[in-house]
Amino acid sequence: MYPRVVVRLDHLRENVKVVRELCEKNHISITGVTKVFRGDPKIAQCYLDGGLTMLGDSRTENLERMQSLPAEKWLIRPPMLSRAAETARYADAALHSEWQVIEAVAAEAEKLGKKHKVILMADLGDIREGYVDYDELLRVAARVDTLPGAELYGLGVNLTCFSFIQPDEEKMQLLAELARKAEEAAGHPLQVVSGGNSATLDLMLRGGIPTGINDLRLGESLLFGKERAKYQYLPGTHRDVFTLECEIVELKEKPSLPWGQVGVDSYGNKPTFCDRGQHRKKAVCALGRQDFDAETCTPLDPGVIILGASSDHLMLDVTDSEKEYRVGDIVQLQLGYFSTMRAFTSEYVEKVYLG
């Protein structure tokens, strides 16, 4: 059935092994992020096969989906107050930045006879989640262990996801110093100091992560083999873990430029078009923005040009391809981060597993 995503599990296992070995050389453990593929247990198992012991997701629904997997599970988005019970039940640990929520989750964990592991988030400039008042962070660190259903587990930071502020040695030194102060406030060592996501890998490989930071929350580097600071592929990794296959439903010769008065798209932007001539072979595929992200994928056929997509149509120029496409033929797209996320969110895209 098409469209479908073909998942190369064997290539993912190899990616995990390569990245884990790189991190181990720098005394860094990995929390494998599973949100891109909605916590699909078949894919998450590859993380464990590759030697990881911790999984992280931003949604409790995905953590619930992975409950049978023998790993410590983190909620990597600050918990919703309205889902405190689900957080306590399905997340062994969570990233926190609000005392009220910590109290609520701890109370639910106490009912379950367990302790919820609290990782406090420091905002070091990306202005997403985390404490910007570091004195407040330390006051909270001193209070967590007073709750019967909670324990202070660690400290963390997130960078490059909203303001795209890059991790650097100064920010990592500040995180390490905050961790030391949090340990003093709590009266015991922290088990985890999480230095961010795949964007921190480049800094790690340049020896820029100080002693005391011992974890990274990685998704993109495991799944696509690249770090996020300079978007360079890591040696020995595979880029083809996820391939989207879609079917051509129309194939006609058409001009490269539309005709008539051009309006704006759904975001209020006026589209622009490249004049490639009057006679171009255009393919329309049964796939749209509801199912994938046209900007973060690449046709495997170098002769195919992605022209754009509407909600449920993908428009391609296949004029320069060496292949003679016909209606009913399949076009393959190598997926990037957001394309994969959207494809796994769409119930209209079948998932096929190889290896």
Secondary structure elements and pairings:
Blueprint: E1 4-8, H1 9-25, E2 29-33, H2 41-49, E3 54-57, H3 60-65, E4 72-75, H4 84-90, E5 93-96, H5 99-111, E6 116-122, H6 134-143, E7 150-157, H7 169-186, E8 192-194, H8 201-205, E9 215-218, H9 220-224, E10 242-254, E11 280-285, E12 297-299, E13 305-309, E14 314-317, E15 330-335, H10 337-345, E16 350-354
Parallel strand pairs: 1-16, 2-3, 2-9, 3-4, 4-5, 5-6, 6-7, 7-8
Antiparallel strand pairs: 1-10, 10-11, 10-15, 11-14, 12-15, 13-14
Helix pairs in contact: 1-2, 4-5, 6-7
Question: Main attributes?
Answer:
single chain; 355 residues; alpha/beta; 8-stranded mixed sheet; 8-stranded parallel sheet; 10 helices; 16 strands; 28% helix; 24% strand; elongated
Summary of the model, kept short:
The protein has 355 residues and is an alpha/beta fold. 28% of the residues lie in helices and 24% in strands.
What average pLDDT do the residues reach? 95
Alpha-beta content class: alpha/beta
Number of helices: 10
- Shape field: elongated
Oligomer: single chain
Taking Cα atoms only, what radius of gyration do you get, to the nearest Å? 23 Å
How much strand content do the residues show?
Answer: 15-25%
Order of helices and strands: EHEHEHEHEHEHEHEHEHEEEEEEHE
The unreliable regions are: none
Question: How far apart lie the N and C ends?
Answer: 19 Å
